[in-house]
Amino acid sequence: RTRRRAHPGAAPAMNCRAEVLEVSVEGRQVEEAMLAVLHTVLLHRSTGKFHYKKEGTYSIGTVGTQDVDCDFIDFAYVRVSSEELDRALRKAVGEFKDALRNSGSDGMGQISLEFYQKKKSRWPFSDECIPWELWTIKVNVVNLANEQERQICREKVGEKLCEKIINIVEVMNRHEYLPKMPTQSEVDNVFDTSLKDVQPYLYKISYQITDSLGTSVTTTMRRLIKDTLAL
Amino acid sequence: AMDTDLSSQDRKDLDKFIKFFALKTVQVIVQARLGEKICTRSSSSPTGSDWFNLAIKDIPEVTHEAKKALAGQLPAVGRSMCVEISLKTSEGDSMELEIWCLEMNEKCDKEIKVSYTVYNRLSLLLKSLLAITRVTPAYRLSRKQGHEYVILYRIYFGEVQLSGLGEGFQTVRVGTVGTPVGTITLSCAYRINLAFMSTRQFERTPPIMGIIIDHFVDRPYPSSSPMHPCNYRAGEDNGAVYPSVEDSQEVCTTSFSTSPPSQCVFTVTKAHFQTPPPVVTDTLKVPVMGLAFSHQLSSSRLSYQPAALGVGSADMGYPVLFAGGLNAAHPHQLIGPGKEGGVPPIPSQPAHGTQADQERMCTPLDGVHYSAATPSSSEDTETVSNSSEGKCGSPHDLLETIFIRKVGAFVNKPINQVTMANLDIPFAMFAPKNVELEDNDPMVNPPDSPETESPLQGSLHSEGSSGSSTGNTHDDFVMIDFKPAFSKDDILPMDLGTFYREFQNPPQLSSLSIDIGAQSMAEDLDSLPEKLAIHEKNVKEFDAFVETLQ
């Protein structure tokens, strides 16, 4: 089920739509389930590389796609054909999975994918990051007792993920706010132009682990000091 | 009227977008039901022929069918384009699984910019379609197709007919795009009442553990390096089966402007180049269109047999899978000519020689036959000795099929075999030559290393695990004496246990044997100074070459 609400803390002039998805999975399914959701979102939020030409026109490269079969879930999904993007997501999801495992919590946490725009500020203020879409996947890790339960879980989680994909597509189809197509000088404020074959909107991934006391510890992938936040 | 609000250029562009959107929609749907993983490459430079900035291949037969159904028209109110996906069993039962509908309603969005917003939203809608086609129940069914059923598609234009989906069918909306002339909607109605055809029924064979031959997978034509994503190239030489396919292909080159929308620049140019001639396979008289591309390594002629499925030509389904081929080539299933309605599998090794090939390809013209079940593990060693009756009239000089085995969740891949005779491909030695799997399959009988007899041969035929009494008899199957889980490989007469044992003792690589290795190494070292001298002499040339790369 997805719920929409304004993202707390966003600038009043701009609403950031937020979608929340929840899944219950077995430990070994966490990575694939997260990748399936994140890749599906990024499929819709990536374009081909822009090539700016004179007179303010630009052309767009081509986005390829590929099928991915899950090993631990009866499920398959489509992702953008970009090894760089896949690596970045796998890294983030891997860290999330490790954090979940090491936290000693009841196996609950959430991973967030946020799309943002950069707004340049004058010195001495640093650039602002203004989110415009936030996807949160709440994960509940379950432990199963025997092989039969695992088999059922494979199928059930596969069906659940099908529902999630349909939910994501529903949201995408609303054609709500998207950043304006930028000029050449602004493109890095809207898109991640660092990849060589595709161009996703600027995004960041973060996660929280809920420990058994109900408090949460936040780690941001790109934060330099994440090492000091050991649980 | 509403049309006058739209500039004529915009109207032309819009019509073109809708037309190509419809064609791409059909491609995505059909390709998603081929039963295999699809993979296309991203390209940072626009190639000019990738509509909607997405790399979606065009299977010519599918485009042909779509154009035929549309007959020059575009989806409009009351005139929807529908792609019907159905399943047909080896016994001839068929059942509609899904209807994908591309419809137009009257709700217009006059304000929207055609060449910019509509185009990008259509692109987004295609991405949604890529995602949704993997989550309906028919996807999993289509990944498992081949042995007991195949998935067919049919395109029609006009009124949507959902009655074939049974009671309680469900609908999923893929998305909508508003345009100045109406709102395009794309949705799928799918059957959920699969009671008598549950997926479990088709899971009698567990997934096959096998070998990924990556360079044959997902690529219609060989390229020089393995492990690349799909790359569609036209075959070098094949007869054009569809002369009616347009010679010129409309190319979409898009430029977008970041200035205010009124200055949008959008150019569509017509590039006159030959539509890639369809690749066809000259084997079975089965209307196997879509799959021909993904499974052919080289060209041959497709026999187009509209009546083959016993359905009226007006509403025939085309097997999305190379149905006949997989059966014909299946080593365990021989289809004797003249047999109707499915043939009990004859689980045995065919007779020697290329005759076996010919037999397999003799699918009777009056129908497509599928084997009902895969052979159980206790195989008969009955040799098929119908080489005399097996001869079909047609001299099929090219049995073009591909040996595909995959590992993974959805692995029930059909198998076709390729004759590698004229193909220059990497790892050619691992491709099965003409037919005798056991004999020529290097996995089973790897080429002997020069010095010693291959230990594989020994291990294959010893240990009692294989029932073959002597060395390379073609008649016998490898008898298994135990059944490891998921070990049944009914594509190759080799089970997991045997495979494992064989590969515990691979033959010595010839390059690793001391004398040959040392010899070549010594030669290499000796020739180094000479080579260096030559390179030094040519240093100016190299530099010039590097310059050109920069």
Automatic annotation (TrEMBL), chain A:
Chief place of localization: other
CC annotations in GO: Atg1/ULK1 kinase complex; phagophore assembly site
Name of the protein this chain belongs to: Autophagy-related protein 101
The family this protein is said to belong to: Belongs to the ATG101 family.
One MF annotation (Gene Ontology) recorded for this entry: protein kinase binding
Highest taxon, organism lineage: Eukaryota
Species assigned in the record: Nipponia nippon (Crested ibis)
Cited InterPro entries: ATG101
Keywords: Autophagy
Subcellular location: Preautophagosomal structure
GO process annotations (BP): autophagosome assembly
Automatic annotation (TrEMBL), chain B:
Listed GO CC annotations: Atg1/ULK1 kinase complex; cytosol; phagophore assembly site
One Gene Ontology biological process: protein localization to phagophore assembly site
Domain Autophagy-related protein 13 N-terminal: start-end pairs: 96-196
InterPro entries per record: ATG13, Atg13_N, HORMA_dom_sf
Localization of this protein: Cytoplasm, Cytosol; Preautophagosomal structure
Gene3D superfamilies referenced in this protein's UniProt entry, alphabetically: HORMA domain
UniProt cross-references to Pfam families, sorted A to Z: ATG13 (PF10033)
Entry keyword annotation includes Oxidoreductase: no
Region listing for Disordered, in residue ranges: 333-392, 438-472
Comp. bias (Polar residues): 373-389
Compositional bias segments (type: Low complexity): 458-471
Keywords annotated in UniProt: Autophagy, Cytoplasm
Keyword NADP tagged: no
Family per record: Belongs to the ATG13 family. Metazoan subfamily.
Protein name as it appears in the record: Autophagy-related protein 13
Species in which this protein is naturally found: Nipponia nippon (Crested ibis)
